[in-house]
Amino acid sequence: MTLNIVILAAGRGSRMKSETPKVLHTIANKPLLGHVLDTAAALESGNTIVVYGHGGEHVRQTFAESALTWVEQVEQKGTGHAVLQTISALDDDATVLVLYGDVPLLRPATLEPLVEKAAQGPALLTAVLTDPQGYGRVIRDDKGLFARVVEQKDAGADELRVQEVNTGVMAMPALMLKKYLPRVTNNNAQGEYYLPDVLSMAVTDGFDVQVVTVDDAIETEGVNTRAQLVQLERAYQLRQVQTLMAQGLGVADPARVDIRGTLTAGKDCFVDVNAVFEGEVVLGDGVIIEPNCVIRNSTIGSGTRICAMSHLEQAIVGASANIGPFARLRPGTELADKTKIGNFVETKKAVLGEGSKVNHLSYIGDAVLGAGVNVGAGTITCNYDGANKFQTTMGDNVFIGSNSTLVAPVTIETDGFVGAGSVVTKTVGQGELAIGRGKQRNISGWKRPEKNK
Ligand code: UD1
Ligand code: CA
């Protein structure tokens, strides 16, 4: 069976009060439309057609990499009119599924039964709501079978009491859509071409419309306002954290973990409050993330603790390491096992061997450190001369005294030792002590200045 998926995304989204087209607003850093495209991909859509209108160029550019068919709907005359624009792009032998660019949380597992049923005839996804206000109501006949959808503005008092609503999501054989859609009129309260009218046409011709009802109506909720966007973001985040908890992740508060990408965690990891994970983050076993950390595209080895207020980006941290509090690991940081990066330390393109420590107030950039290195407080690698970047290299067991300035390119060989406060500009040979600082002079009989009277 071929599946064609039509995604409606032509609406203005004026209630967002934004210059950004609605479907480009994000949940978990991904555009709403991106979530829908992921669902389409999971369903193995053979042809995905996006109906665009307002802000269309921007939307198209954003998804230029994806294999999509773009169809413009110049004037928005209703959902039926929107799907009608795609008719010539639909494969005759396909089942057509209609989704919405502003309904991001629908899961493939919810749609699979709908698509299966639609191979035979029309199928509609409905939801039962305590407050159905604004939605099209699903009207059933005396046998309980689907009869039609009536829009809020066209409904009578009895119909308005119906709590089963049209989610808008439906599927049917392409030929059926091609037959009925051109016959839909705009003879209704809104003067719009209503897509659900194809369903009542099918019923009139003797077809049964199969109905699938969603378990959790949040899945079919759309985004019209920023308040709804936030509501769906929270629902999405909770869903992700609950999935990870079911796989064994410990968290202090599922409402205070945000995953904007993919988090993979080994056994017995624990994430304290206000953690933000972005991109691809992989944790080994027993990793502890203390409060208020941001971790982006990083890998953290087993038994490592990321202390509070740390910020990691494109970093690889080995096992049994200790990072922070207040550490900043920038891209290209690679820390071997048992390393320590302490408070107010920034690293960038820094490779540290096993057991090496940079514990306080340092900048280590463009540097390769061996194993067992100890970098004293306040040490700075001067990697930049205003035009170019240069490398600092340290062998194993190097000791850098506090407040040293290492002017790259420079090498401190194995067992090299740098006295505190040194400015190092030349190679320190193996086992040598380097002291590069002004000599201390003590002047006796010194009189302190006195305050002017
Ligand atoms: C529609 C349904 C209603 C259902 C509700 C669920 C119709 C006639 N009504 O109502 O039964 O309960 O969705 O949310 O289908 N769009 C276009 N082009 C258009 C019109 C709409 O692309 O010309 C897109 C919009 O971007 C939006 C979606 O279709 O994503 C729904 O359109 P909207 O006008 O919000 O439909 P509703 O009135 O909410
Ligand atoms: Ca709507």
- Rg on CA atoms, Å: 31 Å
Largest sheet composition? 11 strands, parallel
Query: Which cofactor or ligand species appear?
Result: uridine-diphosphate-N-acetylglucosamine, calcium ion
What is the mean predicted local confidence, pLDDT? 97
Approximate shape: elongated
CATH topology of the largest domain: Spore Coat Polysaccharide Biosynthesis Protein SpsA, Chain A
Strand residues, percent: 25-35%
In total, the number of strands is: 37
Overview of this structure, please?
The chain is 16% helix and 33% strand. The radius of gyration is 31 Å and the shape is elongated. The chain starts with a strand and ends in a 19-residue tail after the last strand. The strands form six sheets. It has an eleven-stranded parallel sheet, with no helix packed on it. Strands 15-17-20-23-26-24-21-18 form an eight-stranded parallel β-barrel. It is an alpha/beta fold. It has two domains: 2-220, Alpha-Beta Complex (Spore Coat Polysaccharide Biosynthesis Protein SpsA, Chain A); 226-434, Hexapeptide repeat proteins (UDP N-Acetylglucosamine Acyltransferase, domain 1, 3 Solenoid), CATH 2.160.10. It binds uridine-diphosphate-N-acetylglucosamine and calcium ion (CA). Uridine-diphosphate-N-acetylglucosamine binds next to strand 1, helix 3 and strand 10.
Question: What is the element layout, followed by pairings?
Answer:
Elements: E1 2-9, E2 26-27, E3 30-31, H1 32-42, E4 47-52, H2 56-62, E5 69-72, H3 79-84, E6 94-100, H4 108-117, E7 123-128, E8 137-140, E9 146-150, H5 157-160, E10 164-173, H6 174-180, H7 197-204, E11 210-213, H8 226-246, E12 250-251, E13 257-265, E14 270-271, E15 275-283, E16 288-289, E17 294-296, E18 299-300, E19 305-306, E20 311-313, E21 315-317, E22 322-323, E23 327-329, E24 333-335, E25 340-343, E26 345-352, E27 357-360, E28 363-369, E29 374-375, E30 380-382, E31 392-394, E32 399-400, E33 405-407, E34 410-412, E35 417-418, E36 423-424, E37 433-434
Parallel strand pairs: 1-4, 1-6, 4-5, 7-11, 12-14, 13-15, 14-16, 15-17, 15-18, 16-19, 17-20, 18-21, 19-22, 20-23, 21-24, 22-25, 23-26, 24-26, 25-27, 26-28, 27-29, 28-31, 29-32, 30-33, 31-34, 32-35, 33-36, 35-37
Antiparallel strand pairs: 2-3, 6-10, 7-10, 8-9
Bound molecules: uridine-diphosphate-N-acetylglucosamine and calcium ion.
